[in-house]
Fold this protein.
Amino acid sequence: MEFRDLKRQYQLHKEQIDFAIMNTLAQAEFINGKPVRQLEEKLEEYVGVRNCIACANGTDALLLALVTWGIGEGDAVFVPDFTFFSSAEVIPAIKATPVFVDVDENTYNINIYSLERAIQYVLDSTNLIPKVIIAVDLFGQPADYNWLRKIADKYGLLILEDAAQGFGGKFEGKEACSFGDIAITSFFPAKPLGCYGDGGALFTDCDEWAETLRSLQVHGKGEDKYDNVRIGMNSRLDTLQAAVLNEKLSFFNEEIECCNKVAERYTELLRNDTKTPVIKPQVYSSWAQYTIRLKDDEQRTRVIKYLKENGIPTAIYYKKPLHVQKALEQYYIKELDCNISEKICKTCVSLPMHPYLKDWEIEEICHKLLAML
Ligand SMILES: *Cc1c(COP(=O)(O)O)cnc(C)c1O
């Protein structure tokens, strides 16, 4: 059994994907070929945002957004403590200061009360200037953007939406990647919309930021890439990856629906004996992960071992909260404890989740898991 079965996906759509790849090879426009702009246009329409800028990966996308806003030394950027390293990695990379915010016990997204406490603390007790909230749509569930927007407005902050896992999800009927002042996603193969290598994209309604982003991603280009008006980087999406994504988009919504059915079935079977995911009523999740919580670390270790012996892969997202990562621990502010994140890290485990998981496989996973509790 696979944790995320990309082989089954390819076999089912082989003809269509092979044709797109062969066609790109024949055209030999490997950088900035037509499929790249086609993909951006499709994604603009899908998300309902004026500008989509494809780039090399999700981490670059986060970085490009912060650079576009001129974030740097002396600026505080708020980030949930329970997320992939990349959400916070980009903050010290531009010499700004990450401030870790505890997450919600149920949704695992940024906790609004902890966020406001952190902003107040930075204002009252540090010399930093609050600038950006990085909101992560963790495991596929968009964060609560009604509350986040209220807080951002109250303190004059920008929202950077990290929808690397959330693409395809919705909040109050609106697509993920439409909520941040700038939003990003990742096309890493295991994400909800994955390509066949690294890839990412940025979304914004602001044309001026979009223009800066397009410049920064191609060596700070002006008129063209040999006219350089700022220091940038090289972060483009390959034409081949864009061609693959154009095909994958044609069956993406069906896949997310299948993931929702898989999640429903898991929850039916596991809700009485484990802490199953809590999805808010106004949310449609893209189910990047199906993550449950067990009693304690000891029980988790036992379950993972038994499942592995039976050919069932699992993963721990995430083993450590950000504030205990060696590379980030220096930024931890003791007064802003992240107890919930710590607790989740000790007990969470993610189960196989993909659109092609069969009913009998879900039943087998749950049967084996429940036997070990
Ligand atoms: C995967 C991921 C990223 C980074 O995306 P890459 O394309 O791998 O650079 C950023 N944030 C979150 C929450 C992610 O899961």
